Amino acid sequence: MLLTRRTLMQTALTLGAMHAFPGLTWAQARPLVFATFTGSWEEAHKAVLVPAFRKATGNADMVLDPMLSVDQIAKVNAAKNNPPIDVMLHDPGPALQAIAQDLVEPYPVEKSAYYRDLIPAAQVPMGPAPFFQVVGITYNPETVKTPPTSWADLWKPEFKGRVGITNLNSTLGTGFMVELAKMHGGSETNIDPAFKALEALRPSLAAVAANPGQLATLFQQGQIDISPGNFNAIQILKARGVPVEFVIPKEGAIAFKTTIHIVKNSPNKELAFKLIEAALSPEVQAQLMDEPFLIVPTNTKVAIKGELAKTLAKDHAEIAKKFVFQDWAKINEQRSAWIERFNREIRV
Amino acid sequence: MAATLRNVTTYDLKLAAPLAAGFAVFFVTPLVILLALSFQTDPQGGHFGLTQYVNFLGDSFSLGVLGSTLWLGVKVTALTLLLGYPVAWLHQRSPGWAKGVIMLLVLLPLLTSVVVRTFAWVVILGRQGIVNASLLGLGLIDTPLKLLYTEGGVVVALAQVQMPLMVLPLITALGRIDPNLADASSVLGAGHWRTFRKVILPLSLPGIIAGCLLTYAAAITAFITQSLIGGGQMLFMPMYIYQQASTLQNWPFAAAISVIFLVAVLVVVSIFNVLGRLSRGYTNA
Questions:
Q1: Are the beta carbons of A348 and B232 separated by less than 8 Å?
Q2: CA gap A214, A5 in Å, rounded
Q3: What's the rounded Cα separation, in Å, for the pair B39 and B253?
């Protein structure tokens, strides 16, 4: 065949079209798509989970597609029959939404080698939890000389104009509100005390961040000195030399289990299962526990060591004691009403 | 004759077909879907009705969010015009090399991402930012002022971020004005101020209106700058839509808010358009 300009163009266009619309080339299935979170989670998964998965599957094709939980749900919801994602990662609130909207498959527990080794709280049949997120008090040790010991310290007069919180769009913000309610005699179903407490905190607030990521930058800029904060988010700041410390308040750390799910109608169910197995395996979890990731393992076969043992808990029994898990099924029922109320009441 | 001689003033409409198809698929269709979605009465789907619109329009809080967003746009546009006009004027009056420098300075921000420009403002307005540090250093204040997370901060940051959208049309409009007109005006005895008010300003009206239109539309829809400088306690329409759609997965309400916002913006845009048409009549008179 002669290489004319026309045949070259045709080939190029066809290849281009095949690339732009992978659905056209049905001979080749698309790679496994794993929607992880952005930031430190993406880095951790790229560095540890992806290589482990490649090893376990003989270099199967996969891509990471980092995005927020809620965006994952929106994306899958928009194309339920041919979802663009195979494995989703969710905070407790969105996880329940995804399950309620029938977007995820039950996890094939009986096939799993690691499911039974997970701590009870992480054993979720619709999608097990490969790790936790832990929320405590973060503060700047250069400006806050006596380390805080309780959530109540945020209300101390010396922190006037220096406290940061996030609004209820985030899991962090909502979880903190529930904890506030509990401190003042409320619960997941009675949030009034939290709003009252927040009203009292208002003069102290330097900022209401739009998301937890923004909270981290606020520490960096010296805009706030103390806030409820995510243990892992703090580690990145610390690694960059920002003066910031994390303590578990005496009321206990708020813990969110982060669950991992096989998307319903995924064409890559087998690979999805293998990726999740890798995420639950003691090898991967032990590696993710080390510096610089410091991710809390959920597999009881992993002995907690290092920085985690020092700041959080020395073993899984202590985790069960120190970590507070909230009832997100109840929270979800009223979350929109709370957000609306927050919108109205916490304005400056 | 007409059959043999091609009329050069009419073009084949087929040339626009690819663009029209693109618009139909990627703009009109989603808009229709959005509209249909906004008439769903509950997020799970099923029934159709006006519930979402009633919820929004019957709620003073939601209307307040809409009002403060539209008002924010007015403030930003006014500030941008106030600061942008002298820049465009300077560009017009400068020698060739300086024109190039001014144009580069105006265009430079467009080459960096909005996120970067906004973060610069976070640094400038922060407690230990440039503004507070200099004021503290000069002994004018004792404690840092709260500049970030205030509406003033949002207005200033948005004005800077959207500045090129105002300055570029102004430069074009001012460039079209015959310099002899100003000379003629002063020969006839008008001072600088009078020349500006009676000759330059009216002739630059089309540029002002185009600039205001672009700045206004960009300012009220600027999700990133609004949320980063405004923080989590200041609610404007883009964040309101995001909150309902993403966090709460309440798509019908989010769609209804979007439609209402779209209509509100269209109303403002048509007011600008009417003004534009009036100004053209004015300048031609």
A1: no
A2: 53
A3: 9
Task: Record the pTM.
Answer: 0.83
Confidence of residue A25 (pLDDT cuts 50, 70, 90): very low
- Kindly give, in sequence order, each residue whose CB lies less than 8 Å from that of residue A110, ignoring residues fewer than 6 positions away: none
Q: Which residues fall within 8 angstroms of residue A32, CB to CB, at 6 or more apart?
A: A60, A61, A62, A63, A86, A87, A268, A271, A272, A275
Beta-sheet pairing, A87-90 with A32-35: parallel
Look up residue A109 and give its two tokens: 């527990």
SS3 A59: coil
Q: Which of B149, B239, B251 to mutate to test the interface with A (most CBs of A within 10 A)?
A: B149
A-B CB pairs within 8 A amount to: 82
DSSP conformation letters of A298-330 = -BTTSPP-HHHHHHT-SSHHHHHHHEEEP-HHH
| 3-class DSSP state of A153 | helix
Rounded-to-integer distance, Cα B98 and Cα B48, Å:
60
Collapsing DSSP states into helix, strand and coil, what is residue B263? helix
Q: A58 is written with which tokens?
A: 């003989």
**Are the beta carbons of A257 and A121 closer than 8 angstroms?**
yes
A228-247: pLDDT as tens digits:
999 988 888 888 889 999 99
Kindly provide the residue ranges of all beta strands, DSSP E only, lying in chain A, ordered along the sequence: 32-35, 62-64, 87-90, 104-105, 131-139, 163-166, 205-209, 226-230, 245-247, 253-263, 296-297, 323-325
The ipTM value here is 0.77
Residue B233: how many other CB atoms lie within 10 Å? 20
Q: Which pLDDT does position B284 carry in this prediction?
A: 56
A299: contact with B, CB 8 A cutoff: no
Evaluate whether A345 touches A178 at the Cβ level (below 8 Å). Answer: no
CB distance A70–B228 less than 8 Å?
no
B-chain residues near A97 (CB < 8 A): 249
> Inter-chain contact B250–A223, Cβ cutoff 8 Å?
no
DSSP state at residue A22: G
When CB atoms are compared, the residue of B150, B227, B235 closest to A343 is: B235
Structure token digits, residue A267: 């064409």
DSSP string, A195-242: HHHHHHHGGGEEEEESSHHHHHHHHHTTS-SEEEEEHHHHHHHHHTT-
Question: In this structure, how many other beta carbons lie within 10 angstroms of the beta carbon of residue B179?
Answer: 10
